[in-house]
């Protein structure tokens, strides 16, 4: 039997496995089976915590569709709670410094990237105001915060058909690595509402990297100066960034329960 913890950040939920304590060969098919909400344990992302040569721990992230990805903001805030102390985390997106705060964590998420080939896009394009649009949606921005994001600023978030537009844009050939799709509405000074269609997971209650990418895009477009409060369906995150600097994300992290599973079943 293997052990796991169920955790979440603003309702974006994770199965977290301590791979330092148990050997587990994670494949795309196995990650998808564990994440399955009907036949598996169920989660938006599967997180493997391991040993790292240059950090306190390593973190591997698998989307619910089994794809391994570079970054997950909400899961990163869960790591200090899981490990029991502040941690330097080795991820595919780089080294992330995560510190506990009351009820959650504050993480330096690194510097955003804006070059078209760093997003990545299929061909050169201005990433602040992209020369592309989908139906009634205005020209978006694109930001890579370890993983790829496209951001639409809309007047009425409640009028957007997320279930139709999310997968359409996620799989558009303009994004060769697929993309996380962010729909944002400015609702006040330094305050955004945000809904995210996540690559490989669909609509989630919250997306930490989506909040980072959207706040950065809003500051680049001079819509606000920050720190930015991002209100997601699952609750609020505070994102701080100044041009040329790294992104700080602060928000809740929750441990739900510990469980046991037979990994050979999956
Ligand atoms: N929920 C996450 C992002 C998880 C990865 C993403 N779906 C991707 O494919 O890049 C977050 O909180 O950032």
Automatic annotation (TrEMBL):
This protein's UniProt keywords: Amino-acid biosynthesis, Cytoplasm, Isomerase, Lysine biosynthesis
EC number: 5.1.1.7
Active site per UniProt: 72, 207
Cross-referenced PANTHER family: DIAMINOPIMELATE EPIMERASE, DIAMINOPIMELATE EPIMERASE, CHLOROPLASTIC
Recorded superkingdom: Bacteria
Compartment(s): Cytoplasm
Annotated coiled-coil segments of the chain: none
Family annotation (InterPro entries): DAP_epimerase_AS (IPR018510), DAP_epimerase_DapF (IPR001653)
UniProt keyword annotation of DNA-binding present: no
UniProt entry tagged with the keyword Cytoplasm: yes
Family statement: Belongs to the diaminopimelate epimerase family.
Main subcellular localisation: cytoplasm
Binding locations of substrate: 12, 45, 63, 73-74, 147, 180, 198-199, 208-209
Pathway terms, separated by semicolons: Amino-acid biosynthesis; L-lysine biosynthesis via DAP pathway; DL-2,6-diaminopimelate from LL-2,6-diaminopimelate: step 1/1
Protein's job: Catalyzes the stereoinversion of LL-2,6-diaminopimelate (L,L-DAP) to meso-diaminopimelate (meso-DAP), a precursor of L-lysine and an essential component of the bacterial peptidoglycan.
Swiss-Prot/TrEMBL catalytic activity: (2S,6S)-2,6-diaminopimelate = meso-2,6-diaminopimelate
UniProt name for this protein: Diaminopimelate epimerase
Pfam families: DAP_epimerase
Major enzyme class: isomerase
Oligomer and partners: Homodimer.
Site (Could be important to modulate the pK values of the two catalytic cysteine residues): 149, 198
